[in-house]
Amino acid sequence: MTTAVTLSPAPPWASVAGGPIAEAVGSGELPGRVWLYSNYHCNLACSYCLTESSPASERRQLTAEQMLAVAEQAKSLGFTALGVTGGEPFLLPWLPETVMAMARLLPIVVLTNGTLFGGDRIERAAMLAEGDIALQISLDSHRPDLNDLARGPDNFAKVVSAVPRLVAAGVRVRIATTTADPLDSALLDPLRHLVRSLGVRDEDHLVRPIVRRGRADERGLGVVAAARDIPCELTIAADGAFWGSFGPTVRAGRLDTDLLLTRTILPLSVPATTLLATLRGLPQGTDASLGIR
Prior knowledge:
By secondary structure, the protein is an alpha/beta fold. The protein is built from 9 helices and 11 strands.
């Protein structure tokens, strides 16, 4: 069963071209992408998960209508791209149609663990080849045992099966590798070779560090990051709006609020202007470069 998603008329609050957000994005002061945490629950329980997601996680999620409203308002304000993450977004049965509708407004990348693309789900995912959409799938090692140690049993097998099928269907696939090793380590070369063999281009293979937030913080994993280390991409979740996609993390069952901007998520102009004011209020200094993305 599919869900129809309809674009609404331009809202009355919509920003005129050249507004402060559009100008900040255009100048590079503010990143152009808006992230949405579609949900917090997941079919996996990865060892370094930022949001402590698992099958048992509380069902806190955005609605399809909220996600589409964020996309519409992001475009009106002058943002240039969207991202969807979780939890596992594809646990939401209405997600493919919603992503298609959002992609008619702005380019979009959807982060997924890639383990749910079996049966008719691979056919439904194939519709995403029609828009300006990329699926970003996690794969952390060329060795099944090491990959599955962090991500769960059979994760490796499911991912390396799904990726070529998605690529063959015309879906743009990116691979994200999260590692405790140096980002340029030669130890990652066998994984890079594997990713190429799956049909994914080098420029679509992202390597990033484990960030010590959420479950990773509980286990003492990853790099410690301050606000300046985290790209200040406006991030919308059911709990509010945050500084960066690493903002709405959960530790010991409690939401981290150190990077919370506002509890208000709509109209999007409220958290967007708060983010810009917060960014401009930071003391001058050299941004750290930990490779977080």
